[in-house]
Amino acid sequence: MANERNNLLNNNFTISKAKITEVELNANKGTIGIENIAKYTYTFNNKTYKKTVNIHYRSIKTGDCYKLKIANKNPSIVKIDLNTKVKCHE
User: What is the dihedral of CA 38, 36, 55, 61, to 10 degrees?
Assistant: First the structure.
């Protein structure tokens, strides 16, 4: 499954942006452990998607936008690049 996901992301993709909608530090992860997460949204073909990503960077803030790679054949498969901040409005 991971190989198929990577193939979709690497062979037929669109570069877009994701907007951070919420940052939750020390969120509960199941019954044991905590993690820092960021919730984000992105739009592809006039449809808005919502995702969550684990973060290790405390400098990520609500309202920030980051580079996002979207698989054209399955727009729910994405890869957010938290190292590449982009302008939210162009």
Answer: 50
